[in-house]
Amino acid sequence: MKLDKIIAAGLMMAVVSGVAAPVVNVVKAGAEKVTVTIQAGGNAWYLKCLKKNLELSGWFKVGPSGTITISGTAGGAISATGRGKTISSSETFAGDSGARMAARRFSDAVVEAFSDGGKGFATTRLAFVNRKGADNAELYMCYPDGWDMRQLTSDGRAAVGPRWAPNGKEIYYTGFLHEKQLVYRLNVETEARECLGLFKNGASGAAVSPDGRSAAIILSYQGNPELYVMDLASRTLKRMTTTQAAAESSPSWSPDGRKIAYVSDQTRNPQVYICDVASRKSTRFTSKGRQNTHPDWAKDGRLCWSSLQGGQWCVMVAAANGGEASARKVTDPGAWQDPTWAADSRHIVASRDKALFIVDTEPDGDKPVQMFYNKGNWMNPALSK
Q1: CA 333, CA 34: separation in Å to the nearest integer?
Q2: CATH architecture of the domain with range 34-114
Q3: Distance (Å, rounded) from C-alpha 142 to C-alpha 74?
Q4: Domain 3-16+121-383 in CATH: superfamily?
Q5: Which of 53, 64, 314, 356 has a CA that sits 20 to 30 A from residue 286's CA?
Q6: Is the pTM of this model over 0.85?
Q7: Using an 8 Å Cβ cutoff, are 125 and 139 in contact?
Q8: What is the pLDDT of residues 142-175, one digit of tens each?
């Protein structure tokens, strides 16, 4: 199967230490940012990475005369002080990559200590695809700041639709190692890889439930592509949909594990549906836009997806339990695809024009930031949560 067809199918499947009580003024997301002054010395990569991740968080800007001051030595004792609170770290590290990882951890600590209920996402990981040829797309991984990129597959075959397991160590993706699309589980730390099953007519789009016990998966061994839930221990299957003239794709679990958002073309154009796992009953979620694809659920219950409106793709976000009526655009129209929520339930990573961008979903948030400028055709991002 040519990669153009794989990606087209994939667009349905792809078309996963404080020492005092805090005294923190309320700062609304998207409002004027809190200034952080970095007066620390030490490892240059640590300081560069710390600055970038603080600014990517959406809560801070780095500059002089800040409300919060970071001082000390990177690789020794470093602290952030302001608003009646101090947090500190004495983490040591080896090499530039170790310095960047330590900086990410301290950045997340600063966000959680000095923002109004914000959560850092600097230490989460991003899996994504680089399309290299007609039948070749390999998996890669990096951090939201774009550094420490690593290639995960080198098969010379298509690997698409990565999704993270809740443990943050395993990626489930659709690969073509056995001449048809099948789902693989890849441990990014040990590099161990396993096929979930040699299913007749293939498998795709696996997404692991929040408790790590089940996977929503698309199988067509009983006919057209349908949504199933697989018990990962026993490999037993429950069929969730029966749409004889349609194809399902792109499953995503709700944070409570009770529902699965997915895409179906039963109305001839792809739309987002939501399946109640217990009853196996589905309801249509989207109706606006010619096509709606690649839903992803945030930890706070909000749902995002790609929507084709007026001939261009944008990213839509709906409030938790708000339905499509609560939806709003968080990008300008363009070629936005494959949105994936960050762990802070505020930012999204999405692909556009062969590049990956961090999108702030707040109404007055930051403009989209390109993650890195490495040459390639980058797509299918998936953030660990």
Answers
A1: 30
A2: 3-Layer(aba) Sandwich (3.40)
A3: 22
A4: TolB, C-terminal domain (2.120.10.30)
A5: 356
A6: yes
A7: no
A8: 999 999 999 999 999 999 999 999 999 999 999 9
